[in-house]
Amino acid sequence: PKEILLADYAAYPFAIDTIALTFKLSPAETIVTSKLSCRRLGQASTVLELNGGPYMSLLSLHMDGVLLEAEKDYDLSEEHLRVYNAPKSFELTVVTSINPQENTRLEGLYLSSGNFCTQCEAEGFRHITYYPDRPDVLSVFSVRIEALMEDYPVLLSNGNPAGAGEIAGGYHYAIWNDPHPKPAYLFALVAGNLACLTDKFHTSLGRDVTLNIYTLEKDQAKCDYAMGALKRSMQWDEETYGLAYDLDVYNIVAVSDFNMGAMENKGLNVFNTKYVLASPDTETDTDFAHVEGVIGHEYFHNWTGNRVTCRDWFQLSLKEGLTVYRDQEFSSDMGSRVIKRIDDVKALRAAQFPEDAGPFAHPVRPEKYIEINNFYTATVYNKGAEVIRMMATIIGQAAFRKGMDLYFERHDGSAVTCEDFVQAMEDASGFDLRQFRLWYSQAGTPEIKVDVKKGQGSKTILSVSQTVPSTPGQDMKKPMVIPIVMGFATEHGDCLSAQGLSSNIRPLGNGSFLLMMTQGADEFTFEGVEPTAVPSLLRGFSAPVEMETTLSELQQYFILNFDTDSFNRVEMSDLLLKKEVYKIAEQIEASQTKTVSNKLIKSLGQCLEAYERDPALISSILSMPSENDCISSMKRLSIDAVFEARQFLGKKIAHRLRKSLQSVYLSSRSAAKSLSLKGDKQAVHFRRLQNVCLSYMAKTGGHAENRLIVDQFQDSTTMTNKLAALQALVHSSIGKRKQLIRHFYKAYRKDELVVDKWFAAQALSTHENVHSEIALLQNHRDFSYTNPNRIRSLIGMFTMGNLSAFHRRCGKGYEILANAILKLDDINPQVAARMLTPLGRYHKLDKERQVLIGKQLKRILAKEGLSKPVYEMASKAYE
Ligand code: DPP
Ligand code: ZN
């Protein structure tokens, strides 16, 4: 397969001023007529090249009403239609036929629960009709949909409704016009039997917007929360960025079969049900947060993505990094900023850091790809958001807002590059961001080392050095701009007496400072810092780096207990817990007795006792670092020792804090209950703590604890508590374990999103026979290779969330995954390729395991007719 290079970008030589589409919908054969008004730009080529795909047939092709002849007037290959002798301007009419019913790839037009829907980003539109399917070709779309009225009463497309009516034979039609020129990836169509929740929003510009959320009838009752989130998003974007909505309707449709989370098609978002439906008895608090975040994300795309879009797919982070940043800020403003940041950083470390450290590493703005769908990655999204966040930190919020204004002023209605965004920020702020741009082009997570020294007199010196590890295709790296936010923690708050700052330090006015690192090694000097103050570094995770410091253990505990920056208290507990895991792992490797630091247990215990002031924060302080996290920052240890040590430490904490855990469990449980009766949002924070306590309690295997788990499982009315109890049950050796798991299934079998949770909980099992449990689940009648959510809950969870089981020495975990990928490759290559992620995370593994993984990769690569997306991932991992 061919590599596409950023360096090869060339503008499209034609303009498509308008496109008029007519769909005659039928599951087995849908006929699409597309009329393009084309204009040749300048003296450019007279060959009009359109993208196409192997899953559609060309029925006819007319230019200005004249039927064109194959070979003489045009050429058709598997991926292109080339029309010759294009005049200066002309109308091209393309008629194609497609089979939505057979489309299990879920890109282009397909069926979900019997309803028609589309997914066109990144390159799905070319499977509907021949078209310049690239983001820099913007056109004004009008759409006519015809379908059987009884089966498909609802007919939707982008823009505003512009007519509807009956046609003979039980058919009807609807017309949609979208006045905003857009690239084809933002096209959408939905037709089906759908129920609708309606509301409205009055914009700051005086427009009355109708808001609709369409779902299957049975799911209608679960849409209120999403509707509220949509209205909050609309208001937030007006207040924060002065951006208002620009059509008369905003439609959201929820479908069960979806490759991504959701899609921001202009005026017609298509969502995975997982990110729309929310009801306390079937969705968890985390699900609610995700719904709010994704509803916000897709809404915010209307400006960052739709009004200003990407010139080419290498610029994907232009819209995704920025929009993730915007949804993160929205969620922070709606809830707890620090908790949101803790969770986002955790997600970054879990997904992006390992990506950056392995064979799939690529810059935020990649330079080449075989399959663009493989680049909807944590790097483009989450690291991309961090890059935007750093810019905001460096130039300040006020200048950032000015930069956003300038960006829209310059680029509204066009397709631009990451460079254009940075340029707007630079021009609006007056800051020089030349070196900063390396964040877009250099892959790899920078590693910084901070050495704190006392200088002459009252001088405090921070020496910071950085290295950027080499990544595929990038051996040599240049020093990056790294904004380090820090303060000096004392027992009575931040030390405010620092002065005489070196010129690379900027006071932020809130007790914190911004250290601007720009070289391989920098020095930052302060005067007058209180002698006992402890540097609290990288507050709020001001840059996506790995950091090592020379802080003593005493100082580390000081940060854990006293820092005014809550985020850094959590970071410190995470660091101390990991350090303890590694210490125990070393003891295991040296066949020594395993010991656990009393000081650590005592500090955690003290935090736990003081839970009432900030239960969510304490829950984060107490949480064990994930297996993933433990592996990704370990050095020289074997994963076996690290997994064993992690388990050992978890158990020890559970036993040593047994009394407190139980009492905090009981009191947070009742606090959550009474708060939620009052409709108080704080209930979420108490439930979070309650369930962290529960997960520790489960590790004791104690009688009283097991009773509480079973009670919670049986009595709880919220899915948050029910699921936490189910997860505890799965790992436990409670006698009724199997029976209760089955009971959960029976109670929720009709709700597919809950059944997903049921699969996922079991995929995380720590039981000895987990591999055969997975095999059984793969044969379960509700398991299906055609539903991406189901694949992700069983295969994805097992391989990315249950590392100690996945990496068992026997290699069975790798085999299970490879088998699933081989099967999926024929059904849904995009999802198959995504499932390959864990096979690219072998750099911390021993030779033996690497060989086992290599064997499976070879098997995958040997498959005849292997899809392009899977080929790209497997060959990169195999190299
Ligand atoms: N639908 C995906 C997202 O919103 C891709 N644009 O991020
Ligand atoms: Zn997005």
From TrEMBL:
Residues 103-186 form the Aminopeptidase N-like N-terminal domain. Keywords: Aminopeptidase, Hydrolase, Metal-binding, Metalloprotease, Protease, Zinc. Gene3D superfamilies: 2.60.40.1840, 3.30.2010.30, Neutral Protease Domain 2 (1.10.390.10), Peptidase M1, alanyl aminopeptidase, C-terminal domain (1.25.50.10), tricorn interacting facor f3 domain (2.60.40.1730). Residues 555-878 form the Peptidase M1 alanyl aminopeptidase C-terminal domain. Residues 225-436 form the Peptidase M1 membrane alanine aminopeptidase domain. Its cofactor is Zn(2+). GO terms for molecular function: alanyl aminopeptidase activity; metallopeptidase activity; zinc ion binding. One of its GO terms (biological process) is proteolysis. Residues 444-549 form the Peptidase M1 alanyl aminopeptidase Ig-like fold domain. It catalyses: Release of an N-terminal amino acid, Xaa-|-Yaa- from a peptide, amide or arylamide. Xaa is preferably Ala, but may be most amino acids including Pro (slow action). When a terminal hydrophobic residue is followed by a prolyl residue, the two may be released as an intact Xaa-Pro dipeptide. The keyword Transcription regulation does not apply. Pfam families: DUF3458 (PF11940), DUF3458_C (PF17432), Peptidase_M1 (PF01433), Peptidase_M1_N (PF17900). It comes from the Bacteria. Its EC number is 3.4.11.2. InterPro entries: Aminopeptidase_N-like_N, Aminopeptidase_N-like_N_sf, PepN_Ig-like_sf, Peptidase_M1, Peptidase_M1_dom, Peptidase_M1_pepN, Peptidase_M1_pepN_C, Peptidase_M1_pepN_C_sf. It is an enzyme of class 3 (hydrolase). PANTHER family: PUROMYCIN-SENSITIVE AMINOPEPTIDASE (PTHR46322). Belongs to the peptidase M1 family. This is Aminopeptidase N. It comes from Temperatibacter marinus. The gene is pepN.
